[in-house]
Specification:
Nucleoside Triphosphate Pyrophosphohydrolase; about 40% helix
């Protein structure tokens, strides 16, 4: 199988926008949008071919570029190996030298379509944070690692890879749940919603889907906000209030609520197995919610960031003026010893 080698440029400005070009008439896929570039000629390396293509196509001189993503894609007319390089410095202003249209785009709101199919993974990769953090909770300790992660997350977006091979499953679950539960639930919901919206918008642009009507967009927004956003917010607040295990059991009762509604609407027949399962599940949820665990315990010094209030016995730091209700910012806990009912959460990681 013959593979055509192609150099493609992801030209990025400091404000985060990147350049796309529209394929002109007379070429395969006319009217489709792509990253600028072209075929690598015999005797050329990728950097040389990229610089030549951008000079011919856009009239710019590449000053700084680096390899990024390489992928093979089979079109109907040819199979190509695309070498995507990120171009961050150049001389000159991009021009339309080959009768092609060009537009600067934002990854969170692309407004051109259709896109060449081979570009979809590259657009998705552009939406990802530039930094990845690899966990080190086994060495640092869970509280120290979560605190360090929270501080870093205040300043920049990042991917987090949890790599704790020596940690047992229960502790690993604690790391994963704490990393989310300590964040402001509103921030988590907004971030996950934004990532989902960007991913679906990129897919829609890639496959040439039309824009939805205003009424359809508002309806989808309402469904997502209530069916997903509120549910995720409630889940994170529950994790913070009574721990990951209890939260899992409480939210696992949701299918029984849905089944009950379906029975009341006449869409499902009622049966004793379902009633028995629902009753047992309800009893388990009630037991979890009613149980109490209290003893004297010590809090070590701790610095972290999460949504909190000042009437819970753990947040005695002062503000001027004092805020009303829950708020989020980095803060420090001084060592203290007291006794009260508690669950494993951001402040109670002591062992028994």
């Amino acid at each position: 199988m013959k593979i055509t080698e192609v150099a493609a440029a992801v030209i990025e400005r400091p404000d985060g926008t990147f350049l796309l070009a529209q394929r002109p008439e007379g070429k395969p896929y006319p009217g489709y949008w792509e990253f600028p570039g072209g075929k690598i000629e015999a005797g050329e390396d990728v950097a040389t071919a990229l610089a030549r293509e951008l000079k011919e196509e856009l009239g710019i001189e590449v000053r700084e570029s680096m390899p990024w993503i390489t992928r093979v894609y089979a079109y109907t007319h040819a199979t190509v190996r695309l070498h995507f390089w990120r171009v961050t410095r150049w001389d000159g202003e991009p021009q339309r030298l080959e009768d092609q249209d060009i537009k600067w785009q934002r990854v969170e709101a692309p407004d051109v379509s259709p896109m060449l199919p081979a570009n979809a993974p590259v657009l998705a990769a552009l939406a990802l944070p530039a930094v990845m953090i690899v966990s080190d909770a086994s060495r640092m300790g869970i509280d120290a690692w979560i605190g360090a992660l929270a501080k870093r997350a205040l300043d920049e977006k990042m991917l987090v890879q949890v790599r704790e091979k020596s940690m047992d499953k229960q502790k690993l679950q604690h790391v994963l749940s704490r990393a989310l539960a300590e964040r402001d639930p509103g921030q988590v919901v907004m971030l996950k919603s934004a990532l989902g919206a960007v991913a679906t918008a990129l897919l829609a642009a890639t496959f040439g889907e039309p824009m939805p009507s205003a009424s359809a967009a508002l309806a989808l927004l309402a469904i997502g906000a209530t069916g997903y956003g509120l549910s995720l917010r409630a889940y994170l607040l529950a994790q913070r209030s009574f721990g990951a295990a209890r939260t899992g059991s409480v939210f696992a009762f949701a299918p029984f609520i849905g089944a009950t509604v379906a029975v009341l609407l006449g869409d499902r027949s009622f049966g004793w197995p379902m009633a028995t399962g629902g009753a047992l599940m309800l009893a388990g949820v009630a037991l979890h919610l009613a149980e109490s665990h209290s003893h004297e315990h010590r809090h070590e010094p701790l610095e972290h960031e999460h949504a909190h209030v000042h009437d819970d016995g753990h947040h005695a730091h002062r503000h001027d003026p004092m805020p009303v209700g829950a708020h989020s910012h980095p803060h420090r806990h001084e060592p203290m010893r007291h006794a009260h009912p508690h669950v494993p959460d951001a402040h109670h990681g002591h062992r028994h």
